[in-house]
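Comment thread on ticket #2218

A.B. wrote:
> Attaching the input chain for the structure job we discussed in standup.
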Amino acid sequence: MDPVDPEDRPERLPDVARLRRTVLVVAVLNFGYFFVELAVALTAGSVSLLADSVDFLEDTAVNLLILMALGWPLARRAVLGKAMAVVILAPASVAGWQTVGRFADPQTPDVVPLVLASLGAIAVNGTSAWLLAGSRHRGGSLSTAAFASARNDVLVNVAIIAMGLLTLWVDSGWPDLVLGCCILALALHAAWEVWEVSEEERLAAKALAGEDIG
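C.D. wrote:
> Ran it. Output below, let me know if you need it in another format.
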């Protein structure tokens, strides 16, 4: 049996309940906008927007991990956390395949839907950062990481808009392709971080059970 989580002590229950509601709302926002940005990215032919849609799925996974971390046993959280890391890699693989295929002949994306989708992404990420700001110290390192990720994602969305304006100027698909590679690398690193957190929880569960973790 896992030890009692300090966050679940009676005097902390109101904070824990508030954090649960917050991360659930943020997870739903990110999961919903993942499909919006994915659809726009495929329609507009934007690699950077496609790569950014993967980040919304990663943020969904992190916030769901926080939600589960407040009540699930370590061993169960570890298994589901690794499953989420694999889920993140699925759209990342699609984005990577699209990126590789564009190097021979970079496609110039449709800038208007790209910019509009990025403005929507700024609204979602900004709202997520605002919601998480007051709770980032209550859920441990994961909630702090979720807040930092949402805040930094706003900057990524601004970079996509700037890339769109540059695309209009140079009339080339290379800016979109280069930025897409950078965003995809960040998404893959995030998936690896989720996997690492899950592995740490698996080892912690074995240690609590008195098993050898060597």
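A.B. wrote:
> Thanks. Noting for the ticket: The radius of gyration is 19 Å.
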